Amino acid sequence: MAGTKDNASDCAPDFGSRPNAEVVNDRVKLLFHRLVARRLGQDPSLIILCREELARVRREREWRTYMDEWEDLLQLDVTTLRRVITRRDQDMTRLRASSPMGVIINVRDPDLRRRLWRSSRDTLMRQLARQYLARQSRA
User: Fold this and answer.
1) How far apart are CA 102 and CA 118, in angstroms?
2) Residue 64 domain flag
3) Pairing with 132, which of 26, 53, 57, 74 sits 20 to 30 Å away (CA)?
4) Range of the domain at 111
């Protein structure tokens, strides 16, 4: 039907701002690492694949500090690692951008990427809506 929206977030009122693409992408990486954490909980031996991926990156790229940081993280016990990779702090936001954990879940799968991106964008839009309504109720 012409003129209809097939996505609820596309017909949301304008709250004065939209989520910044970088913020959405950071949220996508967090959701991805939550999926990884779940998978590691089911099969802790998958950590071996991450260590192998990090070793490959070390061989093929110029050294960067994140490589040492990930190496330290990958030495943690799986329970602690699962908790750390899903933390919502600056260090983990930065490290998730260079994660060796894409070997556990196919990060190149366009359907998965699209679902994660939409979920992240929609969550952030709901947060913006709540902030907008809170400001309006105080005004």
Assistant:
1) 19
2) yes
3) 26
4) 18-138
